[in-house]
Specification:
By secondary structure, this protein is α+β, with helices and mostly antiparallel strands. The chain is built from 5 helices and 8 strands; from the N terminus they run αβββαβααββαββ. It has one domain: 3-Layer(aba) Sandwich (Cytidine Deaminase, domain 2), CATH 3.40.140.10.
Amino acid sequence: MNQGHAWLARAMAHKSTGKFHLGAVLAKGKKVISVGFNNDRTHPRMQKFNPDKSYAPGLHAEVHSCMGVPDNELRGADLYVVRVTKTGRIAMAMPCAICRKFLSDAGVRRVYYSNKQGEMETL
C-alpha cells in the first residue's frame, strides 16, 4: 500500500459535494492514473450497476476516479478510497456493492479503503 496515494485520496474527499465526503485515487505502482470524489449528481454509469435503485443515485468516488481512463489502464490498477467526516475524522469507506461490481468488471486489482479506526484495509 502506498501512503501517499491514501493521503491524496483523503485530500480529494475534501472536494466532495455529496452528503458523505469520499475521495479516491486510481494508481499503478507509484503512478497516479486518476482521482475522483463523490457528488450528488446522478450519472448513467452508476445507474447501469444499480438497476433497482437500491443505492444513492449520486456519482460515487470510486466510479468518478475511473471515468475517462482507458480499459488497459484500469486493468491491474489499485484504488484508494478515503472518507472524511465533517469534523475531519477518517471514517469507513468500504465500497458499496455497486462500486465493487463496477471495479471488478473494470479489472481493478486491489481496493484499499479507510475503516472506522482511520486505518487502511484491503478489499
